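User: Structure please.
Assistant: Input sequence and predicted structure:
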Amino acid sequence: MTRLAIPLLAAALAAVPLQAAVTIANPASDQLARLTVLQRKGALRAALLDSGLACTRVEKAAIQGPWKNMIMWRAQCSATDPRYDYAVFIGPDASVQARPCPDLAQLKLPICRPFSSNPPAPLTLPKPPSHR
């Protein structure tokens, strides 16, 4: 009987659809995405400086994606020195955690992906609520 139960259980589990990806509501990250490129770079630089990290100017900035309940952004403050590549995690409550990219693997955080040379695809964001 157990010989029959194991294949039946495996077949039943294979038939169950995988859970769809969950979209995280993160108004702070959405607001950052709505800024102009210059404003976004300035906001990310301010977050880095507030975290005690060095950044003269953000050269490149991009959203990398969700991690836990936060959205991970990338900020590159030097085109030639990887010590100035950062991950900036934005929480749904507008909390910010910034870490140098070289430290992420040791901290068991998602590693920084390289910046794409392609222009970014337009973001589709929910419209902000209108207050009347």
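The chain is about 25% helix and 20% strand.
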